[in-house]
Amino acid sequence: MQRRWANITLGIALGLFLIGLAFHRQFWAPYLESMALAGLAGGVADWYAVTALFRHPLGLKWLPHTSIISANRERIVEAISNLVETELLSVSFIEANIEKLEIGRKIVDFLDKPIDPVLQSQLRDTMSQLLDFIPEDRLAAYLEEFTSEKVADLQVSDYIVRLIKWLVQSENDRALFSFLSRHVVEVLNSVEFTEDMEARLKDMLEKYTKTTTQKLVLGLLESLGTVDYKDLSVTVKSQLIDWLQSEKAFEQFELAIVRIMITVRDDGALRARIEGAKNDLVRTVPWERAVNWVMAEVRHRVEDDQVWATLSHFARDIADNFRAYPERQAQLENMIKRLTVSLLHRYHPVIGRLVRDNLNHMDDREWIDKLEWYVGRDLQWIRVNGAIVGGLVGLILAFLIHFL
Fold it and tell me: Which of 376, 392, 370 is nearest to 43 (CA)?
């Protein structure tokens, strides 16, 4: 539309000039001719200037300094990318705006709101689609291969030795012994163990009474109540508990684990068996079945409304916690801002590179058409203004020449 008005303006100037020539004997004809000629000169000059920015006027490529934008495309692209990267979206500008954001408060407000049903539905659909894209058989094969490689490099024997050495040196072996002995005492004090101990003591005594005389004496003692298996089991149990709570038991435990450490460290055959058991354990894991089970559970949880309700309740609890402890909210905000600024410094050059790559991706025709679409429409008014201003200047000069 603007180009049409510019062309109409030139047409009007040309028409006025022809009218002046046709009526050159009239007193007003010189003024009309001067105004029309000046308007034509201004309009044509501005047409040439505007056209020369984008293409060669009249297709004459030998004219100097034409198709300026196309000829200087690389420099213009570089200037635009630098402008965006260093001025419009500079690091300091983005940092300043990040610092103004109340990220912590916005996060708390977001967590405090119940999950929107529409958003929940969209998230559910998106997660379901993403899960469908996961090839479960390939994932299982990858996990098996990755785990096998990592486990093959893992020397379990060395870790066992280091663990025992650390237990002894840090005196945590006493805590481990106390933990184990406490549970052993709980087992010894159970009714099931007491009854089992009675039965075993009775079987043991009957087993070692081989002669008829021994059996007769044992039966006599049992009938007289001299041999009470319950009291005997309680006595044995009490002796075991007292021994477990003694320093001697701990010394024996410590000596045993040190011997285990030395054996694992120095016995090559034992180390080989441990590593072999480790590799066998990895190979026996049903990876594909495990992955299928996990994926099925995830799909089921994604579709379960109760899970989303639990997540919403958990999010509100987190929001309440942040409100109760403002310092934690400030720490979260500072952490997010530091991470964002760190990523900004690392990837900020990508902004200019994206602008540069996008502009370079265009061919010359698209490049010129886009610039002319955004800028050329306003430049056409320069042609209109040139014709009008030129005509007025020509009219003024004609009056000045005639009267002065």
Answer: 392
